[in-house]
Automatic annotation (TrEMBL):
Superkingdom, taxonomy of origin: Bacteria
Organism: Nannocystis pusilla
Keywords: Membrane, Transmembrane, Transmembrane helix
Keyword Transmembrane helix among record annotations: yes
Protein name: G domain-containing protein
SUPFAM superfamilies (UniProt xref): P-loop containing nucleoside triphosphate hydrolases (SSF52540)
Lineage: Bacteria, Pseudomonadati, Myxococcota, Polyangia, Nannocystales
The keyword Membrane belongs to this UniProt entry's keyword annotation: yes
InterPro entries: P-loop_NTPase
Membrane-traversing stretches: 12-33, 39-62
Length: 335
């Protein structure tokens, strides 16, 4: 049991003892101070007052009680099944929910939702001896990353000072969604048609937009909010919608880019962001997985590859006991 959970248990016991003590003293006082006929209604009225006072005292003494109680109830402390918690961060419409659908093979019903997060869960079995665990994915859907700091749901993040996230995936793409006259997203055929001229410039525009969203400062905020070196063992960049790029490359829309150097082209586009992530991870002593994974949440291409390394690291970390994630990842990198 962690120091934090021990503190919470002590607080809970103290709160209950305080309430019970107050109640007991009141009953004794009543027995001495009142004649028998006044006894029953007076006790009833005073019991109510004592309970209300107790609750008020608890609120003042143990404030803020709600996050604390939420934490005890929801962080999974004492939960039997280990959880690999993966946070997906990215601009709206870059494909986070579609990626989750691919990973959980069609199950997209969120088990918890807030204004800014959906949380999905699926059972898994390890490659290392068949132990069970859950993969839990949180899809950040707010537009402003500041919301991440203001209201991160404790059930997924874990309480401040004891964060529980194992992997952070930054999701970017290469194509901005286009809408028709009535506001519906256009189909891929129309999107490809629109991207078939000035292709390089249009893609660069989207990359710039993505890099503006996931900047040095936002990375810092995200790590500040989520990071716990005992838990985080992967930070990766996923570049989505590679199916569309492949078609445009095959059509010859990007001069000098072929299917054999497509990965190189994308890595160059996202080199500044990759460098920022690499530096942030180094500063926090996480040796993440820093190639950009080119994936398609639509076709499933490369999605399993990107996730399998995250799951492998989690499994090794978890079933080796309480090893510090940082030491473990360094060991892996060296051998
Ligand atoms: N062609 C293509 N479209 C995609 C891909 N991933 C997502 N989309 C589409 O992009 C839109 C936004 O996806 P969604 O998963 O809702 O993005 P989110 O807002 O980041 O959760 C949807 O219309 C998806 O069908 C992909 O890999 N290829
Ligand atoms: Mg979504």
């Amino acid at each position: 049991m962690t120091a934090t959970s021990t503190t919470r248990r002590r607080r809970l016991i103290a709160l209950l003892a305080l309430q019970a003590g107050t109640f007991f003293v009141t009953i004794l006082a009543l027995m001495f101070a009142h004649p028998p006929e006044a006894f029953v209604p007076a006790i009833q009225a005073l019991s109510l007052v004592v309970v209300l006072l107790g609750a008020l005292t608890g609120r003042v003494l143990f404030s803020p009680p709600k996050p604390w109680l939420d934490a005890v109830a929801e962080t999974g402390q004492g939960r039997e099944t280990p959880e690999c918690r993966v946070l997906l961060i990215g601009l709206g419409r870059s494909g986070k929910t579609s990626l989750i659908r691919q990973v959980l093979t069609g199950t997209t019903r969120a088990e918890q939702s807030t204004k800014t997060f959906n949380v999905y869960r699926a059972p898994r079995v390890t490659d290392l001896g068949g132990a069970r665990f859950d993969i839990v994915l949180a899809d950040y859907q707010g537009q402003k990353l500041s919301q991440l700091v203001i209201d991160p749901p404790i059930s997924f993040f874990g309480p401040p000072g004891d964060r529980r996230i194992n992997a952070i995936i930054f999701v970017v793409d290469l194509f901005r969604e286009r809408r028709d006259a009535v506001g519906n997203p256009v189909c891929d055929a129309v999107l490809l048609e629109q991207y078939s001229h000035d292709t390089g410039a249009q893609i660069q525009e989207r990359v710039d937009e993505q890099c503006k969203y996931i900047s040095e400062f936002t990375i810092e905020i995200i790590l500040e909010t989520t990071f716990n070196r005992r838990q985080v063992c992967s930070i990766i960049l996923v570049v989505n919608k590679i199916d569309l790029l492949r078609i445009l490359v095959e059509r010859g829309c990007l001069e000098g880019v072929s299917s054999s150097n497509m990965e190189h082209y994308v890595s160059n586009l996202y080199a500044p962001l990759l460098n920022l992530l690499r530096e942030a991870a180094r500063a926090n002593e996480v040796e993440g997985l820093f190639g950009a994974y080119l994936v398609s949440a639509r076709t499933g291409e490369n999605v399993a590859v990107a996730f399998s390394e995250i799951l492998r690291r989690f499994q090794l970390l978890h079933w080796r006991g309480s090893t510090d994630a940082r030491e473990f990842v360094q060991e892996m990198a060296h051998g």
